[in-house]
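Q: Here's a chain of 275 amino acids. Please give me its 3D structure as tokens.
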Amino acid sequence: MSRVALQAAVTMGQLQNKMDVIGNNMANVNTTGYKTRQSEFSSLLFQQLNNLTDPANAEGRLTPDGIRIGNGARLSNTTIDLKQGALKETGRLLDAALLKDNHLFQVSVTENGETETQFTRAGNFYLNPLENDQVMLTNENGHPMMGDAGPIVLADDFDGISITSSGAIEVTRNGNTEVEDQLSLVEAVRPQLLEAVGTNNFRLSEQTEANFNVDEIIPFVNPADVEIKTGALENSNVDMAKQMTDLVSSQRVYQLNARSISMSDQMQGLINQLR
């Protein structure tokens, strides 16, 4: 395969990954608390060709002599935009929307016998019944929401329940209202270190946990600094106009690379016909 075709083929594969990210954003435009993913590209390794015996402008030259030929581009990483989306009033007592950027709810997820703490902006909560006349506050997938002392579990003999603007869980029994738990929130100081794990959740990778101080990159939020709007949900922050523009641009670049492969093949065919 020629160098031109190889570069184009590599870049086309990475552009397909970018279009997959854009398609995922567009598919989740109505998902509560969904955060836009953005693809970032970087150049692959360059090959240095030292083909100049008498280079021009040799005096004071800062770059190596010869020609540097790249091998295409790759999708270096996918970042997450945690900016707040528009709010939607629901009037439901267990719906909560975070009002500060980079704040996240904590949710406990158990998969394959292993439990880990993940993070989400989705605040549509539910009460799931347990044994011993108790209920647990969970997300829409049935995973426990984390409070000050772990999963939020309450006795189910209450007359009413609500979430305050500071994330406190207020329960009314026999006309008396008391705070029985507190939603545990964290702040993503470095959101680029989060990775999406599906079901609208994020987590820190094992590599990140090994190389960084977790308490510094995603510290707990003091309840006094929590701002929540109850009876409302945060919509996706996907900008459909931008996503459509990015999609069309990526498709054009993909077509250009495909055309370069075709042109390279035609040129080689013409060369082979020379006598």
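Q: Can you summarize the key feature?
A: The chain has a mean pLDDT of 86.
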